Description:
Elements: H1 10-13, E1 26-29, E2 38-43, H2 49-52, E3 56-59, E4 64-73, E5 80-87, E6 96-101, E7 105-108, E8 113-116, H3 120-124, H4 140-150, E9 197-212, E10 216-225, E11 229-237, H5 238-241, E12 255-265, E13 268-278, E14 281-284
Parallel strand pairs: 3-8, 11-13
Antiparallel strand pairs: 1-2, 3-4, 4-5, 5-6, 7-8, 9-10, 9-12, 10-11, 12-13, 13-14
Amino acid sequence: MKKYLLIGLVALVSLVLGTTGFAQTSQGAASGAPGSHPAAGPRMNAFMVDKIIGSKVMNLQGEPLGKIDDLVVDVDTGRILYAILESGGFLGIGTKLFPVPWGTLAALPLEGTFFLNQTKDQLAKAPAFEKKNLPDVGDMQWGEGVFKHYGVPGYEQRGPMGYGYGYGGYGGYYGSPMYPGPGREDPYQKLFDAKTMKTISGQVIKVDRVPEPGFGMEMRLTVLIDKKEALPVYLGPTGYIELPGQPTHLILGDTVTVSGSQVTRGGEAFLIATTVTRGKDVLRLRDKDGNPEWIGWKTTSK
Length: 302
């Protein structure tokens, strides 16, 4: 498929894949094609564009949704705005192209796989177009409809960093919307159900921060279980989890064991974590009844 009005800039994308969801600090193999020499230390998942195009996209239940056909880049910032997902006729609508906000994808780039938190029915209702009738991908009003469907902040909410996927950074001060104080109500405590406790183990394929109105920034993991399905895991406020004294600072590629209450909201299944274990380190987040450990902002211990 021809590059949507950005053909001359695609080569830049491989240099700026440092956006949330695909280029988070990790350790392991070097950031080239499969078979590259191992890196000596921390790395970023920076890949050439031709290694991304054609990658398969699956939902969190492990069902195929299609493949990445193209990328759309903001020429002013060098950031990826959308992955263009080509979806076949299995959705019952014929082959169409779906612009997917880049930050909504979780990746296993060395395996050529991306995960998207959309059921087939949800994707069938997503904004889409045909190859013969390309939209103006620079139209911000059109883009707002795309962001709204996938539940991510639109252009006007992205602050001085422009419309990338960093939410303008997550710095702040104690008690600010980004770092809520102990008096703010935890939005997940009411959802927590001690009867639905379970434990999962798998690989962290995404670490992101999601805004919770009236609460602040919530840290969320996406954990790949048995290399077949992925599950979102909500941890707690970023300001608490990223305190210097915490025993575990989670990064892309970590192997973790998570215990918590699995619940469903708006058709989405996810885990509200009580503990996250990586090796010998244990990050304690809630007690068995779902009460937050961060009340009073005490640091957890091993």
